[in-house]
Design a protein that fits this description.
The chain is α/β, with parallel strands linked by helices and 204 residues long. The protein has a single domain, classed as Rossmann fold (3-Layer(aba) Sandwich), CATH 3.40.50. The chain is 57% helix and 12% strand. The chain has eight helices and five strands. It has a five-stranded parallel β-sheet with strand order 2-3-1-4-5, with helices on both faces. Helix 3 runs antiparallel to helix 4, helix 3 packs parallel to helix 5 and helix 4 packs across helix 7.
Amino acid sequence: MHIAVAGNIGSGKTTLTRLLSKNYNWEAKYESVEHNPYLSDFYNDMERWSFNLQIYFLKERFKGIVDIQREANHVIQDRTIYEDARIFAPNLHSMGLMSSRDFDNYNSLFDLMLSLVKPPDLLIYLRSSIPNLVSQIHKRGREYESGIRIDYLSGLNDRYEQWISEYSDGKLLIVDVDKVKFEDNQEHLSHVIDRIDAQLHGLF
């Protein structure tokens, strides 16, 4: 079984992945950000480093899915391969921060990768307002995120909503993290888990 958690920067993906992994006793696959060789440079000069960053993320995400499908373990995954190609790369392209040549090359590689892997059994989307995202980003205090532009976050949010409205690759659960505080409220977390069980096992 493969559950993937999707959502904008600061929406709580890593936190929910950790909590669900503990609850179900499933393996957690986290997005690697601390050892990303491009992230700090990207936030300082998005246009120069956008293609490099997105290729790095795509490579890491594809490797993660291949590993998941090779193993017999149940897995909770922090962020999906879809978000790179459906959200982040198009947003950079539309903002003029990735050239059309690089964007087309990127999409060709993504399409090839996608033809070789299966979608998750359940996609959980963490929906959030921009003020909530900004608050969470400031709260966790990662230095390389301090320069994130509001228009960049807003563009990502718009693309997330568009992608989710059209998602048809499998089961989907939407959690409004402006209202559902699963990190601090056990009752809220239990409600999310009940909704996941209903999706996976048909419990009502």
